[in-house]
Write a structure and sequence with these properties.
With 210 residues, the protein is mainly alpha-helical. The chain is built from ten helices and two strands, in the order E-E-H-H-H-H-H-H-H-H-H-H. The chain has a two-stranded antiparallel sheet.
């Protein structure tokens, strides 16, 4: 966590999800940096999220006019924002980003807290983008054993009804088994609780069948 000096006072500067929630509350729209005003508001929200009784918006704008160092901190914040934007709006195979539903900050927060069971305070105030990216990009590891167990059951059923020697990958090939599983289209892919419940239901049916 870095600090910035404004009018002789040191203020904490740390980019967090809490700051983005505040940004959406003030702007009354989904988080997206489109112009200079959005950048200024983002830094203001970062300072609000990390410092109690921070100054008003008008006072903050006056300070920016007087202190060019604050602009440098804005530029650092934009770097973080661009990383988060890429995470929230993953690209497709053709390089476009409009075919998948954009993930909102609220949805991202819900996934991290409800699906990954992370403490809300940690997600809001401590978690870094590289941690979020790692979790979202490889979330399938959370249910990997369940997926492989269900495939094994399906394989056993299929093999007993086939004269051909089958391989597990003939039933289903998982992306962690592919050499190219680092391709961009796999980034940000998550397995929902509904997927897990349906998989467990199908596995139970297969067990009863056997």
């Amino acid at each position: 966590m870095s600090t910035i000096k404004i009018k002789g006072n040191d203020y904490k500067v740390k980019q967090t999800l809490r700051a983005i929630f505040i940004w959406e509350q003030i702007s009354e729209r989904q988080f997206e940096i489109k112009n200079t005003l959005d950048n200024y508001l983002y830094l203001y929200c970062i300072l609000l999220a990390n410092n109690q009784d921070f100054m008003t918006w008008d006072e903050f704008i006056d300070c920016i006019d007087d202190d060019p160092n604050i602009i440098m901190e804005i530029n650092k914040a934009v770097v973080y924002q661009s990383q988060l934007e890429k995470l929230l709006n993953p690209e497709q195979e053709d390089g476009s980003s409009d075919k998948k539903k954009r993930l909102t900050i609220s949805e991202l927060y819900s996934i991290l807290v409800l699906q990954f069971n992370l403490p809300p305070a940690y997600v809001l105030d401590e978690m870094q983008v590289y941690e979020i990216t790692a979790l979202m990009s490889h979330s399938y590891y959370r249910s990997k054993e369940n997926w492989e167990q269900a495939r094994l059951i399906a394989y056993l059923i299929a093999q007993t009804h086939s004269n051909k020697k089958l391989k597990l990958t003939d039933i289903m090939e998982f992306k962690w088994e592919r050499k190219d599983d680092e391709r961009p289209e796999y980034q940000g892919e998550t397995i929902t609780q509904e997927d897990i419940d349906e998989l467990e239901r199908q596995a139970e049916i297969m067990k009863q069948y056997l």
